[in-house]
Amino acid sequence: MYAVIGGSGLCKLPEFELRSRKVVRTPYGEPSCAFLFGQLVGQDVVFLARHGYGHTIAPHEINYRANLWALSQLEIDGIVAIASVGAINPTLKTGLLVIPDQIIDYTHGRPSTFFEGTEEPVRHIDFTWPYDASLRALIHSAADASEEPVHLGGCYACTQGPRLETAAEVRRLAQDGADLVGMTGMPEAALARELDIPYAHLALVVNAAAGIGESSQAISHAQIAEVVEEGMGRVMAVLKSLVGLGRD
Ligand code: HPA
Question: Is the CB of 227 under 6 A from ligand 1?
Fold first, then answer.
């Protein structure tokens, strides 16, 4: 069974046949909302809305540890994390789906490890390749099978938010080697690795990052809303193809 963590624009999974809803408590507090168990194209899937049902939880306020710990208690094959991102690399056009392969973390003050406190021996997880290579390949095959173009690779910069970046900050991210920018990939990906859960991003480019191309003067929220609306249909097509892959 796959877990899908939905981001902005994907607080619910259309076409998901809901079977049950479960509120989970964890040693780290409460997850973003109840877990939704159900089926997508006849296959079991568990869904979690990262920002809560009504999109009320800001990126820096998400209880990533509770979300990931609760998922670790389920028998899941991996986590497909859906994210809306801004494109820093001008070749990644608005509307494109991307499966990134690297991360740079610019967040601060977010509880970002399970290995702290006097009870827990410290562990330094290997994070050279922050995403699970097999899961990335599976999502890529799923996208191919559903004839949805996706870009494989790219470096995801995770900023603190909730505000968008300045043009100068985006220039710095570009110099650092980032291709995409979002606000929720970390510590989510690192916590998944700490728990040995395969994790990969399926990102939708919803805008050019601040100062770039169409966003040279400002980022248009109206345009983002349009892209999200259209793009999440394609995200769903890839997800359906992914969960259906092992079926026959
Ligand atoms: N910056 C940060 N996060 C984002 C953006 C952006 O431009 N677009 C969507 N999420």
Answer: no
Q: Is the CB of 211 under 6 A from ligand 1?
A: no
Q: How far is the CA of 208 from the centre of ligand 1 (A)?
A: 8
Choosing from 62, 207, 212, 214 the residue with most ligand 1 atoms within 8 A of its CB, the one to mutate for a pocket test is 207
> Pick from 74, 72, 8, 9: which is nearest to 37 by CA?
74
How far does residue 44's CA lie from ligand 1's centre (Å)?
A: 31
Domain covering 2-247: architecture: 3-Layer(aba) Sandwich (3.40)
User: Separation of 157 CA from ligand 1 center, angstroms?
Assistant: 10
**pTM for the whole structure:** 0.96
Q: What pLDDT is stored for residue 245 in this prediction? A: 85
Ligand 1 atom index nearest CA of 159? 2
Question: Is pLDDT at 100 greater than 70 in this prediction?
Answer: yes
**HEC profile of 37-61:** EEEECCEEEEEEECCCCCCCCCHHH
Centre of ligand 1 to C-alpha 245, Å, is 31
Q: What is the pLDDT of residues 144-159, one digit of tens each?
A: 999 999 999 999 999 9
Torsion angle, alpha carbons of 225, 221, 48, 144, to 10: 50
